[in-house]
């Protein structure tokens, strides 16, 4: 099975712009989560989607949003980019809605640089 | 709220040395515990996990035991290799939902 794929892998934007990142989960996986990784804050949870519904949300401003499509693919959007949004954005998928013991499988990430 | 604390890094060892990376957690209920590894330029890979107290997770020579009495999940390996050089993250998942809470990460460098 193909792993979790994320596009694009690298992105450079300027302050004030918006960006959309894409994630394709492992085939058959229905849950998709997004995380932000920075040197200062480490790995922080952004949100989780299951069956096209946001099930969980982390402590990020409303500029960060996401959605999930009927084929489980997910996108996240960041509007009005700030320098502090520069980070590695990781997507993870898991197979079923069976709780915390499930393994989440991570993609390679999208590295976003905001200038 | 939930939190995970890892030993401060970086950690530098010689090949074949014994490795311990400490991890303690604070959580309500009975979380599942995980160790993930991140190689340079890559995403996270699951190394091992344990879903209930006294469970031992193991993979590729690495082991960790879920100790509820000490709220710990320390990672150990008896003999490290240069290829084990990476960043290691301890994480927990809440009983409601699959959101992961991560520790700060520990950079491991193994020298030949």
Task: Give an account of the 3D structure.
The complex is a heterodimer of chains A (115) and B (112). In chain A, 0% of the residues lie in helices and 52% in strands. Chain A has 115 residues and is mostly beta strands. In chain A, the strands form two sheets. In chain A, strands 2, 4, 5, 6, 9, 10 and 11 form a seven-stranded mixed β-sheet that branches. Chain A has a four-stranded antiparallel β-sheet with strand order 1-3-8-7, with no helix packed on it. Chain A is globular, with a radius of gyration of 13 Å. Chain A starts with a strand and ends with a strand. Chain B is globular. By secondary structure, chain B is mainly beta. In chain B, the strands form three sheets. In chain B, strands 2, 5, 6, 10, 11 and 12 form a six-stranded mixed β-sheet that branches. A four-stranded antiparallel β-sheet of chain B has the order 3-9-8-7, with no helix packed on it. Chain B has a two-stranded antiparallel ribbon with strand order 1-4. Chain B has no helices and twelve strands. In chain B, a hairpin with a 2-residue loop joins strand 7 and strand 8. The chains are: A mainly beta (115), B mainly beta (112). Chains A and B meet through strand 4, strand 5, strand 9 and strand 10 of A and strand 5, strand 6 and strand 11 of B.
